[in-house]
Design goal:
single chain; Rossmann fold; 10 strands; binds adenosine-5'-diphosphate; binds magnesium ion; P-loop_NTPase; ATP binding; phosphate transport
């Protein structure tokens, strides 16, 4: 996926000031930066989630598999299956665990019970939560712990076979143990998926990300291999941020 000179305006306020970032297939990219630096705004441009916000304007080019995702003929449902999203607050539907994970396939018309069973199990295994929920598949997902709910949300995304998974601070509402389980899940998934995750947790970025992009004031100050960003950043602003001088 590539993005070129992406600007986002909320009304007259320019929140994103010309972002050009490329994402290789597979692996994890972390988007870091102070609160209000437009990390979430940028993440939402990648599957057109900003479209839902009134008064928003997006300019520039974002291409996925060679197609401009902002082209008028883009099928947004299909796009968001290919480029799935996980939010800060776990947001399972008030249904059973099974029905949460089967949701997208059922919408797509899959009725075959065995096929659904197989996809649900596989997605929950990939999200590293199968062992914990396999005896509760028909209980409400809302009865699970926050960390389990978040992994069920990841499974819900995986069930529709995405290529890219976007996550916006997926662990910031979770306790440390649940957060570390999500981190291990993402490390498993990085072999098969392109993962782009916003985090304000610098340790998390350094533990899991292959590449890291540092955002400030709606711009990307620096993007590089994670080790380089943390050990030997090219820009003074990056160094100040990662050494905790602001943010
Ligand atoms: N829905 C919105 N309407 C208007 N302004 C917004 C909206 N969402 C974000 N902004 C503004 O855009 C800027 C970037 O916000 P955001 O992308 O949420 O930053 P971050 O995720 O880095 O904390 C902020 O100034 C914020 O107030
Ligand atoms: Mg944000």
């Amino acid at each position: 996926m590539t993005s070129r000179d992406v600007h986002v305006y909320y009304g007259n306020h320019e929140a994103l000031k010309g972002i050009s970032l490329d994402f290789e297939e597979k692996g994890i990219t972390a988007l870091i930066g102070p609160s209000g630096s437009s990390k979430s705004t940028y993440l939402r441009t990648l599957n057109r989630m900003n479209d839902m916000i009134p008064g928003v304007t997006v300019t520039g080019n974002i291409a996925f598999q060679g197609n401009d995702i902002y082209a008028p003929q883009t099928d947004l449902v299909a796009l968001r299956k290919q480029i799935g999203m996980v939010f800060q607050q776990p947001n399972p539907f008030p249904f059973s665990v099974y029905d949460n994970v089967a949701f997208g396939l059922r919408i797509a018309g899959q009725k075959n019970r065995e096929a659904l069973d197989a996809v649900v199990e596989n997605a929950l295994r990939q999200a590293a939560v199968w062992d914990e929920v396999k005896d509760h598949l028909h209980d409400s997902a809302l009865a699970l712990s926050g960390g389990q709910q978040q992994r069920v949300c990841i499974a819900r995304v995986l069930a529709v076979s995405p290529k890219i998974i976007l996550l916006d601070e997926p662990t910031s509402a979770l306790d440390p143990i649940s957060s570390s389980q999500i981190e291990s899940t993402l490390l498993q998934l990085r072999k098969d998926y392109t993962i782009i995750t916003v985090t304000h947790n610098l340790q998390q970025a350094s533990r899991i990300a292959d590449r890291t992009a540092f955002f400030m004031n709606g711009e990307v100050v620096e993007v590089d291999d994670t080790k380089k960003i943390f050990m030997n950043p090219a820009k003074k602003e990056t160094e100040d941020y990662i050494s905790g001088r602001f943010g």
